[in-house]
Amino acid sequence: MTNHAAVAPNKLDGAVLKIAGVVVLGAIMSILDITVVSVALPTFQTEFDATYAQVAWTMTGYTLALATVIPLSGWAADRFGTKRLYMLALLLFTLGSVLCATADSIGQLIAYRVLQGLGGGMLMPLGMTIMTRAAGPERIGRLMAVLGIPMLLGPIGGPILGGWLIDAASWHWIFLINAPIGVVALVYAAFALPKDNAEPSESFDFVGMLMLSPGLALFLYGVSSLPETGTITTTKVWATMLAGAVLVVSFVLYSFKPRHPLLDLRLFRNRNLRIASISLFVFIIAFMGAGLLFPSYFLQVGGESTLRAGLLMAPQGIGAMLTMPIAGMLADKIPVGRTVPFAMALIAAGFFAFTQVGTDTSYWLLCGSLFVMGLGMGGTMMPIMTSALRTLTNQDVARGSTLVNILQQIGSSIGAAIMSVILTSQLNGSNPIPGLNDPKTGEPITEAGAAIANQHGAQLPLEPSIIQRGLEFVADSFATTFWVGFALVLLTFIPIAFLPRRRVASPLSADPSGDGGEDRTATPVLIH
Predict the structure, then answer these.
(1) Can you give the pTM of this predicted structure?
(2) What's residue 460's pLDDT?
């Protein structure tokens, strides 16, 4: 490793590129899978006769699984070796993908998505560790350029690929496509990755993990059950929310005791980390939660095919692709407190258009708004994460990186749950059509349900005025939900106002720990 770095500090040689190929394959599977599924949620509603709040758990369960294994992956890599663990992660992800395609109920699909997330959550942090060790600290910049490809293309290619597969074949293929890629990646990894050198590692906080992950899952399950029950007083809602809240609060109190806690909340004493984490957390809840609904609007109100819905989402990814490299360069030169507010203003401006959606809103306006939001998104997330980690010392960077990334996954889960609950609650307020019942459940079909069914080819014996009235109700439901997301975006401006507006010297160049500043201390900056 050190020889490569010494000979060609600015170039990635063949040996490093061979390892990079394995990591990029894993990253493509993991990143694409998040965005591919976003256009499939309405399809899952139809296939499994489920509410939007229920099918959103295919995303919520996946991101909760990611949050669970992020801290576990660093400990396990030292304990069992990166190559063995990376191949296990590939196997879990591929197996989970194949099982997802066999699901015949929404409960099964959610369970298999959790298994998929346990594998997918380890692919990126392990891949970053493997590549950083192979390339050496001198070539981290060029390394990030290689790994940035799937990160930038995922938001563009995912919805388009998912839409095409659902239209051309069936929803099963958005998961089955991972099988051949996973097999190739496994064989490739077996030959390309260097042999493991497992070393003793610090103890892992299993007690903390057993409190945080089930606590979040129980609390979000209670929240997502609200549309189904219609009231918080039912046992299914309040008991699970209470049990989840008790576990999460217990975790927070407990996490200050272990030497190596699952999440080191003591790091929040650092003002920059605290402000940046709050900013990122609120932003993720608002933007990622509502972002899942953008393709659903095109599908359910616009009556578009899944492929067209995916294509209509592409401007957002293109916008992010344009500003992300620029924001990365500016983050090293200009304090984030001076740039991030402008990026957030772009997001808010683009988001506002979706609060005005109706049945005939111009696609030019919406696609332009998505592009503007993408420009803002590319200039927001990475600079905020940079600000969070910049003022940490070497020995704190790994724990800070883990903390920020887990908060990001938890925020995604909460955002998906909240927005899906609000939309489902709105849609549940639609008027039932007398004498027209669902043949599967026997429940009355509502005007909103009839309008959505009509948009997807069902020929119901109804007057066009009823269908139009239902369609307007669905559009209003989306607009109301987007208003909540917009309010949360505006709320993000409060913590962002406290981001540093002056350059702050980073202590990473120093080595206060006295361990010589080995590159293994710098590696975790890039892990997640």
Answers:
(1) 0.80
(2) 65
